[in-house]
Each structure stands twice: as C-alpha cells, then as structure tokens.
Amino acid sequence: MNLFIIGINHTTAPVEIREKVAFTPDRLEDALNDISKQAGLQEVAILSTCNRTEIIASGDNIQTHRVISWLSDYHQIDPADLERSLYILTDNDAALHAMRVASGLDSMVIGEPQILGQFKDCFDQARQFGTLGGELDHLSQASFRVAKKVRTETAIGENSVSVASTSVTLAQQLFSDLSDCNILIIGAGETSELVGRHLVSAGIKHITVANRTLKNAQRLAQELGGSAIDLQGIPTKLPETDIVIASTAAPLPILGKGTVERALKSRKHRPILMVDLAVPRDIEPEVSELRDIYLYSVDDLQQIVATNMNSRQESARDAETILKEEIAGYRTRHQMKGAEEKLIRFRDHHHNIKAQELSRAVARLQKGDDPTEVLTQLANQLTNKIIHIPSMQLKAAIDDNEKDLVTIISTLYNLDDNVE
Fold first, then answer.
1. For residues 26-57, b (16+ Cβ closer than 10 Å) or e, as one string?
2. Among residues 11, 19, 50, 310, which one is catalytic?
3. What is the pLDDT of residues 379-412, one digit of tens each?
4. Strand pairing partners for 53?
5. Percent helix / strand / coil, the chain, rounded to 5
6. Residue 122 bears catalytic tag
7. Domains of the chain and CATH, by start
8. Which uninterrupted H or E stretch holds 269?
9. For the segment 30-46, what is each residue's pLDDT rounded down to a tens digit?
10. Global pTM?
C-alpha cells in the first residue's frame, strides 16, 4: 500500500512540543514542497491543529529517518525531544488511524466536529499545492465517507461535552429561537470568551458583556459583536435579559435574590436562564427559589457533561465497529485498484512491443524488402517477445514443483493440457 503517517498528538506530546511542530497556513505550501523534495515523498499532506501535527504520505521506500530529520530541521527542534513524542503508522494501520481521526475518535474530546473540516482542508491544500496523488486521494475519500457514516449511524456528536457548549445547549432547550434572546455575560475572562463564541455560533445576536473593568468588557464585546457595561449597570440591564452567563473571580456574589426578583417583576415573570460558572459563586443560590428562574451551577453542568461523555463513549464503541468493517472494505478496494493498475501495465507492455515491431516492419517495407519475409519476421518477433517471460516463469514453476503457479498460468493462457 505504501501509506505512511508520522505525527504527534495530545496523547504523545505536551503542548510545549506540539506548538513547536505546528504549521501555520501561510507556511504550508513551502513545507509541502520542501518535504516532498527533502524526504523523497511522492505524495504528502500535512494535518496541523492545536492538538496534533501529522505528515500523511505515500511513496516507494519511504525512509522514516529522512522525514523525522526534515521535521526536526524545519522547526529547529531537538531530534531526541521529537522522537520521544512521535508515532509512526504504515499501510492498514495508517489508513485506520486516518479514519479514526476524521471521525473524531482520536480527538481530545471524543466526537468533536471540527476535526473533519480540518482533515478535509489538509487534503484540499495538498491538492492545491500539487502534492496530492491517487493514493492519498483514495485515503481522503474513504475517510470522509466513514466519518459521515459514523455521525449518521451513531450518537457520537449529539451531546455537549464541555461546560461552554452545555450552557448553549441548555439555552436552546429553554428558548425556541436564540437569535431573539438578549444575553448578559458577566465577566470577561477566558471562560466567558469561550461561552460567548459558542453563543455567537448558535445564532445569538444581542450580547452584553458586564465586567468590573469596563475596558476588558469592551474588548470581549467587540470580539462578539455586542455592547459593554460595568457591573453597576447590571440591575438596569437585567429586566431585558433572557440568559445570564456568569464567570468572574469575585469573592462574593454579584447577583442577589432581591435584584433578580425586581427584574422578574419588570419582565412580567418571563423566564430567565442563569448559568453560574464561577467558583465561588457569582449568583446567590437562593435565586433558584424564585419562580421563572432556571439556575444552573458549574457542578450541575459538570454532571451533565459527565453523563454526555459516557454516552459518547458508548457511541465511540459503536463507531469502532463501523471502522473495522470499513477498513476491510478499504483494503479490498485498494487491492482491486492495484489489480486494475497491473492490468493497465500489462496491456501497455504488450502495446509497446507491438508498436516497436510494427515500426521496424514498416521501415523495412518502405525500403522495399519482401513483404512476405517482413510479415513472417514480424509475426515471429511478436510471438517470441510475448511468450518469452511467461515461458520462463512456467518453466521455473515446473522445475520448482509450484503447482499453484502452474495452474494459474495454465488458466491465464487457456491451456488445454494439465501441466503437472
């Protein structure tokens, strides 16, 4: 098969190593062309994400040390540090790994959907920069097909498995159309930023960021396409808010029961979803006693995440069964593809013999040689060249008592007599 994958991921290397061997999009064309030449790869694609870098290649007699040496030199990293973190896969193992990656089974978060797009992009880029051939194209198409089958036939991507995405899922369950909802994010740190991005991806259009430092609130609000207020503005903003996401480092609660109760009266008791991701809490626990308030703490969300992770683990087992079936089909299709290529070479070989002998015969006729003699020699030369190699192979098979090979040759040339 001549398929080869060498790489590192979140299970084999710390982030300090992973970030050193990552490829940025603007360097990819140079990297693909350089590794093709320096490591002698006939086909190559590079998959580079925050959690993995993989060189996916095909070619004759690929030399592992040349690929590792190139990767080390290109990123100026100590080869010893690199080799400790690398995994090397070939042929069927490499094909199965590619299918697992595309399906999200090899991800840090099982079933995460982003990897399929990143996987597809890496092959599209190889095609764009001229390093994709038939072998890797066959691998990419098979992997895409398997990944879609896994997502269609299992529930591997259905349940949220992060606190941020679970917050959005809760909002979608409570409100039919998130695009009409007003969101208040309290805090402007990393968690707030992550939740904000999930909200925007889910179609949220009206976001307000509240923070003790207004400048930080404005920074995040600009990124999310929203507006900013300081913490003192929360009581005024709350009556028009449908969803509150709180995540600050404040030592005491920012939202109390009284403030929320007054907001509910102004809203005529339209419900509010409140998600408190802070430790210690940003929202007083007593707020949950109010009617029309749906309050979830970080512990509540982590329980949901744990349940969903168990569900994904079960789906992953179903997905692995699908992959086992698909890799068997992939091997069969690959073998058939190889047989078709051999048939093409077989036909081309004999067409070349015909062209050479016909050219010689035509040249002799043009010189005025006797046509009967020319045709007789043409027939003899064609026959001798066509039967030479099969005759040698058949003789060797008989001498070595290789009965199976004798039977194959006999069948191939439709010989009537049984050769023992």
1. eebeebbeebbeebbbebbbbbbbebbbbbbb
2. 50
3. 888 888 888 888 888 788 788 888 787 787 778 7
4. 8, 48
5. 60, 15, 25
6. no
7. 3-159+312-331 (3.30.460.30), 163-299 (3.40.50.720), 336-412 (no CATH)
8. none
9. 999 999 998 889 999 99
10. 0.56
